[in-house]
């Protein structure tokens, strides 16, 4: 009889181990993902390029704009697909000089009207304006070399006027003017101090960094060291932008984002780690050549789906105390390129971005952001 008890005991252990195995997803095996901690996503946004390749060079009626972009405010159940829209782009030198020309009024593209801003805000979607982009690197350099303090003051005035936040998209890879950018930030913060509550839209000031730590190195080093700390934050968070093309797998996308969270201690000077709570990850919904991506129209199996566990649960690695990134940003709504397909009917993104927002129970309006 003792041998029967022994057999039963061994079988019990095997059964327990089997049940444990089948209830632990393989994706949780990564050392970067906290198995016991999953934090809700707070930021789930889209860069919005209007209908002319991000120029915003024409005034549009709300009715016409809605006919192209209704999916952003309604994913099919009356709830917005996103909780943030970033109108892209403001030309920095024109903003500094308060230029008025055929496509610009007092430094702001004429298409970025209060009506368009309020179209989103009336549906509890936070709005920001992005200054720069890859097309305007030279304009950033000229503006920062001329009067970065005035540029920061002008940006704050626009933010206050429209009730929006500001995103810094300065993609100078070789020798960024970090002294000038510091002066810009200081001037902006003199008008709109850092607001941890997030209740003041104009106080929201963010920055775009590369997909990982191997491009925009000077900017990333300065931003991570000086502006994105959890102890004395200056900027609210950073967006890890999309790479040159859509990552081929979840692991490829996650590897880029992990570089920010790990930092690069081997660099000189080193890039310190970034708290996951200070980072969003970018994915394409329209590609660089204008093709609509599966992430736009189909959630299941898309990168929004397959990176979800990582984004919810990635653990800090030297900075911050809470697990999980802030969320996702999608490039880009409507027509980011003069060629190719736009995210307009019949190619709108309810089925991908919208279903993702529903699946992950994205809060609308955006909640107060974690500070560490």
Could you explain how this protein is built, in words?
Helices cover 36% and strands 13% of the residues. By secondary structure, the protein is α/β, with parallel strands linked by helices. It has a single domain, classed as Alpha-Beta Barrel (TIM Barrel), CATH 3.20.20.80. Helix 7 links the parallel strand 6 and strand 7 (205-209). The termini are far apart.
Which labels suit this protein?
372 residues, alpha/beta, TIM Barrel, 8-stranded parallel beta barrel, 13 helices, 13% strand, disordered N terminus
How is this structure best summarized?
By secondary structure, the protein is an alpha/beta fold. The protein has a single domain (39-359), classed as Alpha-Beta Barrel (TIM Barrel), CATH 3.20.20. The protein has helices at 2-22, 62-73, 92-97, 114-121, 137-146, 148-162, 178-191, 217-227, 250-262, 294-297, 303-306, 308-313, 350-359; strands spanning 43-48, 84-90, 104-105, 108-109, 126-132, 165-169, 205-209, 238-240, 279-284, 327-333.
User: Which residue ranges are poorly predicted, with pLDDT under 50 across at least 5 consecutive positions?
Assistant: 1-36
**Quantity of strands, as a count:** 10
What class would the helix/strand composition place it in? Answer: alpha/beta
Largest sheet: 8 strands, parallel, barrel
So how many helices?
13
The backbone outline, from C-alpha atoms, is globular
Distance between the termini: 59 Å
From N to C, what is the helix and strand string? HEHEHEEHEHHEHEHEHEHHHEH
Strand content range: 5-15%
